[in-house]
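Example 3.2
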Amino acid sequence: MWGELASSFQQGNAYVIAILVLGFAALVMMFERVIMLQFAFNINFTKFLTSFRKAVTAEDMERAMSLCKSTSKVSLPRIALRALETAEMDPSKVRGTIEEETIEFLPRIEARLGIIPALATLIMLVGILGTIDSIWAAFHTVDVLDTAKKQATLAKGIAGALNPTAMGILVCMLLLFSHQVLRGMALRLTERVHHGVAVITNLLVPPETATYVAAAPAEAAAAPAPAPAAAPAVEQKPEGGGDDSFDEATVEDIKDEEEII
């Protein structure tokens, strides 16, 4: 197979050359991503956050700024530096600054990573197209040959037609594997940046005070409850709904009449 691929390249197969050109472009892109993810954006996050926390806790902002500038001009140190600068001018805007810088930086981690799978798919499709074209050419060539030469020419044409597909599949496999490795590196870097942003936010963002909101319920609870209004006296009437003029004298007269009867 390798000899057939080399032979196709030497013969100037356009599809094989196109696959190699696209593969070289994807390779350059992968090397650029490796350099950015492994060397430019990646730092010793644990050491940086430990030193940064000590400087901020000691209220030594100059030392914290110097640490950010000396560590890196991108990635998490840049976010921390912008947060420190904003904290000196207006502490209430620190949270917004951190969010803006984080949103601006995170897409740079996965920049151009989505192009690699697209190139891998395109390379495989170019290989398949080259195979189809070569098979068509082989069948058209057989039509004008003698019967004795048809079988050998057709077999050679079909064997050569498989070279673009084989090359495309090999390059596609390498690109997809490399993309998964780069994707894992980008994911780990994103998680570390999120953790660092959380630490910076807890150190520099002033706590939100809710004094007025909490004081109202406390004062209301401390105040004595108002005494309930005295209920109006209800005049009790005798059972049976009798009149007030029905006094004891009337009762005695009724008793006397009953004795006479």
